[in-house]
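Comment thread on ticket #2218

A.B. wrote:
> Attaching the input chain for the structure job we discussed in standup.
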Amino acid sequence: MGIINRFKIRTRLFIAMAVALVAIVVITAYSFNTTNKVGDTINTINSHPLIVSNAAADSQHLVLDILKTYQDAFIEKDITKRKIFEKKIIDYEKNLDSNMETIQQLILGDEGQKLAKETSSNIAKWRVNNYNLMDKIFDLNNREIARAYMSTTELEEVEGIQIQLNAIQTYAKNKAESLEVQAIDIQKKAKVTTIDMCFVAIFILLVLCL
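C.D. wrote:
> Ran it. Output below, let me know if you need it in another format.
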């Protein structure tokens, strides 16, 4: 305090202004950095977990649509309508492939990647098993084979895939919630730190000015 008191008033005011300027710059930079962190976290939520969750939910509907199309084809005895069912299935499968590609690209974490790969693998196996199903449905000699497959294996495979897709959806939602908590935590810490920095700056200014 004795050293500070020996400074001229003009010098002390100059130092106080310099300290105030540095404090403003530091607090502004810190606030800007914190805002960027929160923004990045929010962008991650919007561009990863939410998209993955939506893709998984849509895939569940597509799997059921494919199953229903096979069931409708089995009921339909007019072979001329076979192409209609085949086209529907192809369209559903294209959308399903697009969703699974999105999920594998965007899902976060090793556990998520593992779950996505296992689900994609099971979907691929299911499609291979279904490859000749349409032939059996419209072949009078194999319709009973098709019926037996659709009432047992087909339903079991679809149920297993649905469970995995639901797990992906849950995993993605949990990731989103975790990131939201992280963003809130960053904001809280930033507020406390900013207030502390302001008090320190004010204290230094008071010491210099008094």
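A.B. wrote:
> Thanks. Noting for the ticket: Confidence is low (pLDDT under 50) at residues 1-7.
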